[in-house]
Amino acid sequence: MSETAPVTLRPRRIRLVCWASAATLLVVFSLVATSLAGPTGNGYGTFQRGDQLAMAGLGVLGALGILLFTRPRVEADALGVRVRNVLGSYELPWEVVRGVRFDRGAPWASLELHDDDLVPMVALQAADKELAVEGVRALRRLHQAHLAALAEGAAGR
Fold first, then answer.
1. What are the two backbone dihedrals, phi and then psi, of residue 53, each rounded to the nearest 5 degrees?
2. For labelling, which of 62, 70, 110, 151 has a CA lying 20 to 30 Å from the CA of 20?
3. Where is the Low molecular weight protein antigen 6 PH domain (predicted)?
């Protein structure tokens, strides 16, 4: 693999868990929706078609909420890194990145910026073990290649 080859990283384990959970939630809410028929427990009302549709709709909304957790992704190339987390995204040039961190016990990796901020990369999760470690190594190679290019540019002047 070239040091400047583009890298795309996504979590593996959480995606499998989320897809299975979303499918299960959808099935459960569909079964509950089909069982809503006839009078209520105390006989003062009856379940209607709208109640069934509302329960199925809640299942769809819940499944979509779970699938938000499959959104994280990290894409990096020689120019910079793009981080997409569950509810936000960042596009950073390598010039603002001090290093790629994956601290012991941390749930995911992060980018350390020159202004001492940390940008979490939820796509590189500790639960993915070796896949996450290889992803961090690939990002560090890209960062080191950028630093080497800067050093060459400064030495060439």
1. -65, -40
2. 110
3. 71-141
pLDDT in tens, 78-95: 899 999 999 999 999 999
For the entire predicted model, the pTM comes to: 0.78
DSSP structural state of residue 118 = E
Residue type, 90: Y
Cβ–Cβ < 8 Å for 47, 54: no
- DSSP-based three-state secondary structure for 82: strand
145 and 17 Cβ atoms separated by less than 8 Å: no
Nearest CA-CA partner of 130 in 4, 2, 18, 13: 13
Dist. CA 8–CA 84, nearest whole Å: 11
Q: CA 33, CA 53: separation in Å to the nearest integer?
A: 7
**Residue 89 phi, psi dihedral angles, 5° rounding:** -145, 155
